[in-house]
Amino acid sequence: MRRNRYWTAQALMSPSPATGGHSLPAEITVRRPAMKEFYCGAIIHGCETRIVASAEEDLLRAVDTHARVDHGMTDVPEAMLDQVRRSVRDVEPADLRD
Asked: CB neighbours of 23 closer than 8 A, spacing ≥ 6?
């Protein structure tokens, strides 16, 4: 007897004889952690760069690189990094269906 490799949602949700009639949960929710976002135009007028990272450290590293490469800064002042930290906001990751 050949086994079917493709299962329908109904087959997966129905009680299985191997589990003693227990059914699988009707819904599984996976919570993705919030991402950090910084919009450079909040500090540098006219800059449209938006930086998104999973952690604040990664975001600050990307902001430092952006400031050096795109804005020609040789050294990013601590006062500007404080402004960046105040402008960082949490955002939800993009939906996978997009």
From this structure: 13, 14, 15, 16
pLDDT, tens digit (0-9, with 9 covering 90-100), for 37-52: 999 999 988 999 999 8
DSSP per-residue string spanning 10-77 = HHHHSPPGGGTTPPPPS----PPPPEEEEEGGGTSTT---EEEESSHHHHHHHHHHHHHHHS--SS--
Q: CA 89, 92, 97: angle at the middle one, nearest 5?
A: 150
For residue 79, give the H/E element and its range: helix 78-87
Rounded to two decimals, the pTM is 0.61
